[in-house]
Amino acid sequence: MAMSGDPKENMRKASDGIRAAAKDGARIVVLPELYRSPYFCQSEDPAQFDRAEPLDGPSFGLSSGLAAELGVVIVAPIFEKRAPGLYHNSALIIDSDGRRSGLYRKMHIPDDPGYYEKFYFTPGDLGFPAFDTAHGRVGTLICWDQWYPEAARLAALDGATALLYPTAIGWHPEEKSRHGEAQLESWLTIQRAHAIANGVYVAAANRVGLEKPDANRPGIEFWGNSFICDPQGVILARAHAYQEQVLCAEIDTAHLEEVRRNWPFLRDRRIDAYQPITRRFRE
Fold first, then answer.
1. Which residues neighbour 36 within 8 Å (Cβ) at sequence distance 6 or greater?
2. What is the second-level CATH architecture of the domain 7-278?
3. I need a labelling partner for 33 at 20 to 30 A (CA). Which of 41, 119, 227, 236 fits?
4. Which pLDDT tens digit goes with each residue over 115-148?
């Protein structure tokens, strides 16, 4: 999706996309991170907190109605207002009957040029669970979480057959010519590696378009390339870098079982030897 400054327009576009995906046969639909607004974290502005919504706010209303009408599961990212002064970057998991079957709060919060998320979001406190839905058990992580193998592994160990990543990531325009290709390839590679290492499907839903909220700053060119890959890292569907698209691909649990039998990474883990991973770095 490309986002405008009008939340109602973004919700209408999301609704149209959900309907299009359902018409194509989708049973689980994932929206991009913070889909109701432009990516406001490019600056630190207290007025942006007015964009936040409660768990039963507009995103739940939209997703609940569509999920029940279409019989699909919807992952709806929200800027969650938990309490006055307490906000999260979250995702609602809405089951096909319209009820909320899960809530995920982004665990890894970046603080980089143009991505000043620590100003807005409290780190998640719900861990990396998987959620049972009418159409399978899924793990939902968000954007910066997608770089961490520990997050993917823990969601997989909780039984997820697919890892779903609502995302808002792109190029700094002044860096694109020099670093852009490597950055995009790194993003694709790390997530395909999560699929392979854990024997799961992976789907990432990104935004597209140049968002330049301040005329004196270069903005961020979101690089699209939403994709779905299988447990061997094979890309089943991939979107354009500059166009809005709806992607669909099949999650085949029989294929997942076959891959895990031949690449039994979970079987051969040395869980007795991994204690040092909880340290920040070597002592």
1. 3, 7, 10, 11, 14, 51, 53, 58, 59, 78, 79
2. 4-Layer Sandwich (3.60)
3. 236
4. 999 999 999 999 999 999 999 999 999 999 999 9
